[in-house]
Write a structure and sequence with these properties.
alpha+beta; 4-stranded antiparallel beta sheet; 8 helices; 26 strands; elongated
């Protein structure tokens, strides 16, 4: 076995330990034989000496003398026979000692054999340990090599870390300079925004002043015309319908008074006639009601502007309306060059907006159940996904695939504002209960509140799932998401106040006019009515053949919340009765199929059938005259 290595090396410690153990074992095993081997050698020497003596003392057969003859040495030894034994006695004694020595030699030989076997076993163990020692030495050599490689890698990593630290320090210094520049730019931007807001406020104040003067002049003309109408006499001798025509003529006069000054002369000539026959009357009852609503809206909107006091929410005008089940399509036309993704009626149901994949929003006048083209709103940066009117019906808000929502003013073809800030497609854009606030939802997992007066995002709500649709109540924002949940957000607080899970991805939400019920459509092919007073699902609507074909399928309440409507993947319109929960009708219209990747019109709204009597019209007009 090779000697131990340098004591200074850490790897040689275990070798020195093994050598010390082997030396200790050698000393222990050698001590057992130190006394045995010399004793055994002495016994062998004694045995050889006794064998020689026995050979010399044995007499030959012819030298044997009778016992009666005594030699001279016997005579000499006669007197001392007790002290010197006879040769026979000595022979017997030596034979006994030889036998004892043979026994001892046998025992010693047996012990030598046993010790030899033990020594062989120990030598085999020593060989095994030497083999293990060689394997461990090889393993130690491998580990030392690996350690050397690890040291090299650590040195390389240290050098790389040092280089990265220097680069980080350089980047941090650069970031500090950029942050300082950014702060300067932000301060400049704030100053510019403040100046712009002040300029807009002054312009808005001037515009409001001009509008107020113009409206006051119009109001004075209307009051004058109403006084003339009150003094005029109407003949009612022909039939009861003539009375209705007279009331209609008064409503027509109100409408003509609100027209530009170029039509005043024509209106004056009409008032010179003593009466108008039924055949000459072209104003319908719905037109009369629209005129009254416009006048009431005028009184309600006065004094509210961007630069004025905070705008109050728009209240709906109580009217006698009833939703009636449709039986057929009143008008069918090719509106867009590509798919139609969103439709929305204005507040008075006389204006319809449609948006499609051709990046256009078309405004249609609803006249006698027919659609007549009114205006085309251009400038959208992507396909239209959602369209909504503000409560006054003067602005249109649309969500687009271009990661933004855009705002138009009715009567202007180009976009008024662009609400940018989302990182993905904007799937929903809705006005709140005031015309200067809006909410958008996007596939970037955020819901944003906007101040439309400054085109500024006033709040960003981060959600863990895609937002497919939003609706707004008095002080709550409701959003439907891809993770099969409907979330309620307090617009006055920073957190989610409630979560209602549904079975399937939420594709649309519709809030009733009384804000007490919420209708949701989801990918599990069901519509659910949620009672917001107790925050639970009140009804679930299903139908054989109804299938929610995409994440953009829309479902809506009828204006009086009596019915729930949704379009299926095959183009069939399904209508359920909210009170009974039964399927009332399924209409196969001009939409005979739906695209698999993007549906056509998925939302259909029932046209209101106004059935006011002459007494109600007279009461409305009379209250306005008073």
């Amino acid at each position: 076995m090779a000697g131990p290595e340098d004591p200074g090396a850490p790897a040689a410690r275990w070798k020195r330990h093994i050598v010390r153990q082997l030396r200790q074992r050698d000393r222990t095993q050698k001590a057992l034989f130190l006394e045995l081997v010399p004793a055994y050698n002495r016994l062998l020497e004694k045995a050889e000496l006794l064998a020689r003596f026995s050979e010399k003392l044995q007499p030959e057969p012819n030298d044997v003398t009778p016992a009666t003859h005594q030699g001279p040495w016997e005579e000499e030894s006669g007197p001392d026979s007790d002290q010197v034994p006879s040769p026979a006695a000595q022979r017997v004694k030596w034979q006994e000692e030889e036998e004892g020595l043979r026994l001892v030699c046998g025992e010693m030989a047996y012990q030598v054999v046993v010790k030899s076997e033990a020594l062989g076993a120990l030598e085999s163990q020593l060989g095994e340990r030497r083999g293990r020692l060689a394997a461990l030495e090889a393993r130690v050599a491998q580990l030392q090599e690996a350690r050397a490689q690890g040291v090299q890698q650590v040195d390389a990593r240290c050098a790389l870390n040092e280089a990265q630290r220097e680069a980080y320090e350089a980047l941090r210094a650069r970031a500090g300079h950029l942050e300082a520049a950014l702060r300067r730019l932000e301060e400049e931007a704030r100053d510019l925004v403040e100046r712009l807001v002040q300029r807009k406020a002054r312009a808005a104040a001037e515009r409001n002043l001009r509008n107020e003067r113009r409206e006051r002049a119009k109001q004075a003309r209307v009051s004058l015309e109403l006084k003339k109408a009150a003094k005029r006499t109407v003949s009612i001798s022909e039939s009861p319908d003539t009375l209705g025509d007279g009331i209609i003529e008064e409503a027509e006069t109100l409408a003509l008074a609100a027209e530009p000054e170029s039509l005043e002369s024509e209106a004056g000539e009409k008032w010179k006639r003593p009466f108008r026959s039924a055949s000459a009357t072209s104003l319908t009852l719905s037109r009369c009601v629209d005129v009254v609503k416009g006048l009431l809206d005028f009184k309600k909107r006065r004094g509210h502007s961007i630069g004025g006091a905070p705008e109050q929410r728009y209240q709906s005008i109580p009217m006698c309306v009833a939703a009636r089940l449709p039986t057929r399509a009143q008008d069918v036309l090719d509106a867009h060059l590509s798919e139609v993704n969103a439709v929305c009626f204005g507040p008075n149901s006389s204006l319809l907006a449609t948006g499609g994949a051709d990046r256009l929003i078309l405004l249609w006048n609803v006249v006698g159940g027919r659609l007549k083209a009114n205006q085309t709103l251009e400038g959208a940066g992507g396909s239209i996904t959602s369209v909504d009117f503000d409560p006054s019906g003067s602005q249109v808000l649309a969500a687009t695939y271009n990661k933004a929502a855009q705002l138009w003013k009715v009567g202007e073809a180009q976009s008024k504002e662009t609400l940018s800030g989302h990182a993905d497609k904007v799937t929903a854009a809705k006005f709140k209960l005031t015309r200067h606030q809006a909410v958008t939802g996007s596939r970037d997992r955020t819901v944003k509140e906007w101040d439309l007066g400054r085109a500024y995002c006033s709040r960003t709500i981060n959600v863990i799932s895609y937002c497919n649709d939003v609706v707004c109540g008095d002080h709550v924002i409701i959003s439907g998401h891809n993770d099969q949940k409907i979330r309620f957000w307090d617009s006055r607080g920073p957190r989610c106040i409630q979560v209602i899970p549904v079975q399937g991805r939420v594709t649309s939400l519709s809030l009733s006019h009384d804000q007490l019920h919420l209708l949701s459509c989801s990918r599990d092919d069901t519509l659910k009515v949620i009672d917001l007073r107790v925050s639970n699902i009140r009804q679930v609507f299903r139908a054989d053949g109804f299938k929610c074909g995409s994440d953009w399928t829309k479902a809506v309440f009828s204006p009086d919340r009596s019915y729930a409507l949704a379009g299926s993947w095959d183009g069939v319109l399904y209508i359920w009765n909210v009170d009974t929960g039964k399927l009332e009708s399924s209409l196969q219209g001009p939409h005979s199929f739906a695209e698999t990747w993007q549906p056509r019109i998925g939302m259909v709204r029932v046209r209101m059938r106004l059935q006011p009597t002459f007494a109600r019209v007279k009461r409305l007009l009379g209250s306005h005259l008073l």
